[in-house]
Amino acid sequence: MDFVYKASEEPGSVCTLVTTDFAKAFDAVDHRVAAKCLLDLGGRPILIPWICNFMSNRRQRVSYQGYLSDWEYPSCGVAQGTILGPIIFLALTNNALQDQIAHWKYVDDMTMAQRWTSHQPCTLQQTLNDFGIWVEKQKMKLNSKKCKVLHVTRMKQIPAWPSLSIDQNILKICDSVKVLGDTIQSDLKWDGQVDHIDWLPPLREQLTGRQMRNSEKLTIPRCRAEKYRRSPIPYMCRLLNDYGF
Prior knowledge:
- Pfam families: RVT_1.
- This is Reverse transcriptase domain-containing protein.
- It comes from Sinocyclocheilus anshuiensis.
- The chain is of the alpha+beta class.
- It contains nine helices and eleven strands.
- α2 runs antiparallel to α3 and α2 packs across α4.
- The chain starts with a helix and ends with a helix.
């Protein structure tokens, strides 16, 4: 958010964000590529065979209506729900983009951004082309239909947005994107984020049977007023007043 605010507050500037999505990220991890990435990062050679043994020699089969398929030994993928699985995936994606452009990574989520003006046109398409080559080299695949573009600017006269594509698929331009649980809007407002009102307790009719048996759940007042939907501060003030703090 700091990058977006600073990049868009300058007169005549635009900040463009691109959120990417890997298709079956953990299931597509190539074992040989992952082992090479671990070695390139300085992993101890004595540990690499142990990690390769963790990734390989796994088998799986399908059960359907009482019938079982033959065992198959996949040549890619890491076990999800393990501690080592995300570490291997991080090693695989560590060298993506490098210092080519401003970007942020979190496990299988990757977001890139660039500030551009009419005098310095957007070069994100070249970055996306290079990123696509890197993805192919790592034997991974992008889900271009889930990749999104967000343009943020304070200019009154909106310029023509550049057309960005991945794998010859034009990326969808959105009014808001979600990055690590936070909703970033093109107008930099927060109403899309607070409209989730996750901080409000549920209505009585929305409570489950287990919650109904827990009397503490029913002591928290629910506020329907619009003023309480926009910010938790007035709601918390009412709670403090009701409970005598």
